[in-house]
Amino acid sequence: MSGIQPTQTYHEIFRNKLKLKNFEISDKFLKKYPRAADVLKKKNLTLQKLREHSAKLMGAGALTGALILNSPTMPAQITPIEIVQNLKTLGESSTPIENSQENLISSLRDTLPKRTRPLTREEEKHIEQIFSENIGVKAKASLEGEHLNTTYGLIGAEQHLRRYPGDTIATHPKVKAGDEGMAPGLGAWGYFAPSKDKMTSDIVEEEKWYAVVQTLYLPDWKARLPYLREWYKHRKVLIVNTDNGNAVVADIADSGPAAWTGKSFGGSPEVMNYLGGARYKKGPVIIFFVDDPENKVPLGPVEYNTMSTGMNILKV
Amino acid sequence: MSKLFFDHLIVLTRVDAHVKAISQNIEEREELWQLVDELVHHRVMDLILGSLPEEHHTEFMEKFTEFPYEERLFVFLNEKTGKDFEKVITEEMKTLEDEILKDLKPRKKKK
Asked: Is B33 close to A188, i.e. CB distance below 8 A?
């Protein structure tokens, strides 16, 4: 039988095809590779559980294990001694305002691996200090015990999200060039407002400066779903383009991207435009949570070259 | 954190655009993401074990399950297979993307 049944959606058809394909391949795999199947069985694993298994290992701190060090395919990490020395240097120097961005880029270049990967806690602590010194926004890799699946990865361009029922691209604010249009579905937290008349200037900013993070791959996402859903909803993050130092404060408004897109984060058209310009569709960034219990840090670009930096917190 | 050692080679952008287009909500979208992820794992593992001499299967799986995120696994694979395995996976993913997209498109009814 071919074609679409009247009661089936494209989603259901595709889902069923994928499920069938996975079932067939999984069955074939176990018969074709008995030695590999034995290892998986011994460890109580399946191919389907590999990503979850990796998440648990990395969440347990295995990333700091010996294997990752001196890896020929991964840049060496900075040692704790180097971190302490770097922190002392940062603390002693007084950063001229006009050079903040250059200092930031230079410091990140000295600290970050060439290819994006999850950072160690020591590397993240060092970068928190660099951000505090140069950008002036208090941002942390871990906040209230929560941590993203990675803080250093590639960000990709996302589309505008529907803010309320009936919102269309025709009436939606757009970036001047290279606008990505409107996403076909809603963000992970649904509409920003129940109706057009409930829109406020704050909600406009929330959609305008939104970020996408991979909440679905958090090791405890399913187990702590009710709490984590609320915790991540519109959580403020500092996004820093590690190539040019451009920084923006955004709020988390969607889940993704899929692991098989080569990206770890997403940004609204406005976020991407500010980070890298109209043609910027993908690039390396660091994303940290903004430590802003009094909700004083505004969403949008952080023009830190024009403000007082050093140990001062952003004045708003 | 969640990472598999071959993640950086898997870029199925066109599939992602289709998944987003046919999903009505986040639950549908994440379900399809998960299913495609499984398909990718199966395909990559089949590719690896199909190229790797059988006497190395156990050693590879032991290393892989212990350090699934470790990109140094490519050194092991390249050495044992004599191939540039990052290149092999990248090529295979182009084929897989075409296959998935073919499945995504509704078949026309035969008259």
From this structure: no
